[in-house]
Write a structure and sequence with these properties.
The structure is a homodimer.
Chain A: H1 26-39, H2 42-52, E1 60-61, H3 62-65, H4 73-85, E2 89-94, E3 97-102, H5 106-115
Antiparallel strand pairs in A: 1-3, 2-3
Chain A binds a DNA duplex through helix 4.
DNA sequence: GGCCTGTATCGACGTTCATTGATGCAACCT
DNA sequence: AGGTTGCATCAATGAACGTCGATACAGGCC
């Protein structure tokens, strides 16, 4: 229940220097675009927000997410799957319920990617 | 040639506290999602990268952008329009050529939105 | 076992999006 | 003025996406 995620906003090997550091090549752009595309939907953005506002280590049960939207349960499940495939969240089933959380550091790395003109520095 | 942009990642009134601060409401999510959706395409992401890597105040001529992609000229123009409508870039015609640049601060505000659990602070 | 609840997957449908060729408009050149 | 180049807009087409009902799967409970 938690494979097939991207490793774009990669832990250490942070994919690339940053949006403003140097022009992205096609592969980098394609991988990164998947992440932004996942965030490019109002429903998914609210989901992320609901999950992320639980803080580090925080979780949200699907049963809390579902009633927050005027959408069918399969649609909710679909959006959660996309966020997971984008490498933004992960989940675990515990008994009857499934809990989702934000993968640690992802948002910070994404933010760093957007900011980062810190090209000059300890690269050596 | 430079109206109809969003004001989502708004200058001062920064739209909202941040993704992780509190769950977004529908309107906030809808506005923000447009920005992420604009970045959610490999072509547009590379465009942004090419423009942003020119640095603050830097510009890129469309005539430089176009040959960098294996796409028709109308398609390039279309993507640039979307980025502009998302409030990420702006442009100006100077003589024969049109130059695009990243709107100052947008990327930083977007990054801050993604990071920001710094809810407490000088809001007054 | 059988039933009920919570969640994921499947298939279908309508809408949105990326892409293109054709065309229009603006600025330069002679 | 007429021709040429750079870029935007338009209209059409095929692919991708969001949504749903139906269904399948997993776990708890009786």
């Amino acid at each position: 229940m938690s494979k097939q995620e991207l490793e774009v906003i990669g832990q250490d090997t942070a994919c690339c220097a940053g949006l403003s550091a140097a022009p992205l090549n096609e592969d980098q752009a394609a991988e990164l675009a998947k992440v932004f595309k996942a965030l490019g939907d109002p429903v998914r953005l609210r989901m992320m927000s609901m999950i992320a506002s639980r803080g580090e280590g925080g979780e949200v049960c699907v049963c809390e997410l579902t009633p927050a939207f005027k959408l069918s349960q399969p649609t909710i499940s679909h959006h959660l799957k996309l966020l997971r495939q984008a490498g933004l969240i992960d989940c675990e089933r515990r008994g009857t319920w499934v809990y989702y959380w934000v993968l640690p550091g992802v948002l910070d790395r994404l933010a760093a990617f957007l900011t980062a003109p810190q090209t000059a520095g300890a690269t050596a």
